[in-house]
Amino acid sequence: MSEDGKTLDLLFGKCAACGGLSFPANAYGCATCGEPDLETIAVPGCGKLLAFTTLYAPPLPSIELPQGVGEIEIADGIVEEAMVDAHGVEMTPGLELIAMPKPTKDDPEKFDLVFVPEGAA
Amino acid sequence: MSTLKGKRPVYVVGIGIDPYSFPTERPFVELGLSAVRTALADCGAQWPQVESAYVGTSSIGMAVGRVMFRHLGSTGLAVTQVENASASGSSAFRMACLDVASGVSDICLAVGVDKTGDGKRAASKDGLEGLSPTRAIPAVRFALLADRYCKTYGVDPVVLAQVAVKNHGNAAKNPFAQFRKERTIESVMGSTRIVGDITQQQCCPRGEGAAAAIVVSEEGLKRLGLSGDRAVRVAASVSTSETVGTPTKPSMIEIVRHSTEAVLAEAGVTPKDLDMIELHDAFSIEELLYTECMGICGEGQAGDYLMSGATQIGGECAVNASGGLIGMGHPIGPTGLGQVCEITRQMRGEAEGRQHPNTKTALAHMVGLGTIAVGHVLVKD
């Protein structure tokens, strides 16, 4: 959880050799140069939407369908797939998104990470 | 004449397929032996003449080869199991080709055999957490690529469905295919929506089956007393793995682009020389993305190219004349070898009911979980 108590930070591994970022932070080495020494850094969880789709099937035990899914650039050059809740906003490429916690379907004490449009955070 | 890796020429002389199907109670041994015995009979080889074997499989278990081969006679041949996800069969074929090209063997078998497994992947056991539970669903990744492609080039999603209409149509004419039914555009578009614009009939089925190919050197041709009339030469073999993608160049597309460029260069041919391609269309969007990045048509033009009929049997470059993964099926271990069987059959003029005319140069290309790519160029001299 970030300092605002609402949004989420993302943890990256920063390479001691080339300075490149790897995700997640506990990667076993730098994705670019292979250096094993990675420093964990927390970055506010935000990203730029590259593509969006909606999953209708197959059922997943932990999430309710349909569920939006995005391809999101979460740091310079790092693209990850993540769940997206559109909140009525049109999902156009380039849209800025924020990482938020979302209670899981079966256990409200547990959270999934979901990205939402900046204004809906 | 180009030769594989600049070494000895390699020829496919025997092919065999046990038709792909939905899961049955048949033991894998029965499926595999059916394909191997057909391949042996196809080239008149006797089992003791086979010096080495590579077995592509993903879900059966350890040491599949000997469990099958003991029923052919215990010759003591070298047996190696190969697992490379969807590219397992292609990788087994590559190993067999390299065995022959390098002089280790003169007569070598590649066989793919699989039953439907649990589909568990190493990527879900690496101790690292991704952001989304959906990352284990391949269809999601391809639906995201479809969204990007359709928005970038203004492509109507109905074009995705046309890929499935073509490939189901080809499979309907293929006696080895899992699906044997032509589909209309209404049927494809109206089938259950899976993710984004991808419907059920635009996805490959899960299933089982077996496919085999016997590859030989020129010495092997002599030993088998073959004239070479029905032999197909393997002009090039390339295997690559994923590199780090960028937001504008997704690794899943770049791996296909680079492996195809490399295998065509090794064969000394250009995309325009290809009469036929068998490629990994686990989901309809892949065929559009790959025909473009393989250089068969220009950027953003795959839809128009498809709709022009150029990729149909009888068109400029038949793509997935077998029915592809969507129509013929995708039992994993056999799939890449099934492509080699289809191309060989087409080059011999033996693809009854779905013959693509004058097939001289063709590409067989598979992708394993978006991380491995294996390509072969086959040539009928």
Would you mind describing this structure in some detail?
The complex is a heterodimer of chains A (121) and B (381). In chain A, 0% of the residues lie in helices and 47% in strands. With 121 residues, chain A is an all-beta fold. In chain A, the strands form two sheets. Chain A has a five-stranded mixed β-barrel with strand order 4-5-6-8-7. In chain A, strand 1 and strand 2 form a beta hairpin. Chain A is globular, with a radius of gyration of 15 Å. Chain A starts with 8 loop residues before the first strand and ends with a strand. By secondary structure, chain B is an alpha/beta fold. Chain B has twelve helices and twelve strands. Chain B has helices spanning 28-43, 64-69, 88-101, 138-153, 158-172, 185-190, 218-224, 251-267, 284-293, 302-307, 324-327, 335-348, and strands at 11-21, 52-56, 78-82, 107-114, 193-195, 198-199, 208-216, 232-241, 276-278, 318-319, 361-368, 372-379. In chain B, the strands form two sheets. In chain B, strands 3-2-4-7-1-8-12-11-9-10 form a ten-stranded mixed beta sheet. In chain B, strands 5-6 form a two-stranded antiparallel ribbon. In chain B, helix 3 (88-101) crosses helix 12 (335-348) and helix 5 (158-172) packs across helix 9. The longest helix of chain B is centred in the last third of the chain and has 17 residues, at 251-267. The radius of gyration of chain B is 19 Å and the shape is globular. The chains are: A mainly beta (121), B alpha/beta (381). The interface between A and B is medium-sized, with 32 and 29 residues.
